[in-house]
Design brief:
Layout lengths: L12 H16 L9 H8 L3 H13 L3 E4 L3 E4 L4 E5 L15 E8 L3 H7 L7 E10 L2 E11 L14 H12 L6 E10 L2 H7 L6 E11 L2 E11 L3 E5 L7 E3 L7
Parallel strand pairs: 3-10, 7-11
Antiparallel strand pairs: 1-2, 4-5, 5-6, 6-9, 7-8, 8-9
Helix pairs in contact: 1-3, 2-3
């Protein structure tokens, strides 16, 4: 690997380095590959380590790099599209769903969730835990809340917990005719449980997408999906009209 010296440029040196590094990521490295250490990179490009860190931080913000605990700085996979405002409606777990079902429990949700479901605040609901993975790395975690009236025949299914129970809940949910769905997006920061699920540090930026599924004129299910902001991008469909609110204390729960 040769040494590349940066010429004098009018833009900040770290920004020019960011461009050079981005080109190197495209031509020399593959997704998941660990970058050389800071000392070697600084020597290669003939810059101070402080300048190098600024460029690396910028590329991390742009989703080109990931700093993984116990691993180092790696090349990030392409951003995952988070579709919002689309007129194509489907139940969670339908054909083509990219989410992986992990667990299910029956518990009383947070008051805000109960209100959104228009159920009693002391009424237990089915909570399905799902995750989304790309290139072997978690990019999103979802809590899918389903009130018991939406799946009335579930009591006869012998699967008390785990992924089997979660899949059974989704199968029963599919018996309903989906009338529509709507989504809202908020910017937030990951708290401890979000960070653990997403392999990020607490406080990392996240996108929280809340989706209501409507059947028989009521909310039949509520999804709260937390996406890593550094690996995801919003894509807008035909209907658009998504409001984005900035709330650093927002948390999916």
């Amino acid at each position: 690997m040769g040494t590349t010296q940066l010429e004098s440029v009018p833009e900040p040196k770290y920004w020019h380095l960011r461009t050079v590094l981005s080109e190197a990521l495209d031509s020399e490295f593959s997704v998941g590959e660990i970058l050389p250490n800071e000392r070697d990179l600084a020597a290669r490009f003939g810059v101070a380590r402080a300048t190098l860190r600024q460029a690396l931080e910028q590329l991390e913000l742009e989703g080109r790099l990931q700093r993984r605990r116990g691993v180092g700085t790696t090349v990030a996979p392409p951003r995952v599209g988070v579709a919002v405002g689309t007129e194509q409606h489907a139940w969670p777990g339908a054909a083509g769903d990219v989410w992986q079902t992990a667990d299910c429990d029956l518990a009383v949700p947070a008051a805000s969730v109960a209100d959104a479901l228009e159920s009693g605040r002391d009424e237990p609901v089915h909570t399905v835990h799902r995750s989304r993975v790309t290139h072997g790395q978690p990019v999103a975690a979802e809590l899918l809340y389903i009130p018991q009236p939406s799946v009335p025949d579930l009591s006869g299914i012998d699967a008390p917990s785990g992924a089997a129970r979660a899949r059974a809940v989704l199968r029963e949910l599919h018996r309903l005719e989906l009338e529509g769905q709507d989504s809202a997006v908020e910017l937030g920061s990951a708290r401890a449980d979000d960070a653990k699920a997403l392999d990020r540090l607490p406080g990392a930026p996240v996108l929280v997408v809340t989706t209501r599924y409507i059947a028989a004129g009521r909310t039949a299910a509520l999804s709260v999906a937390t996406y890593r902001a550094d690996t995801c991008r919003l894509t807008f469909g035909d209907s658009g009209g998504v409001e984005i609110h900035e709330d650093p204390q927002r948390r999916a729960s």
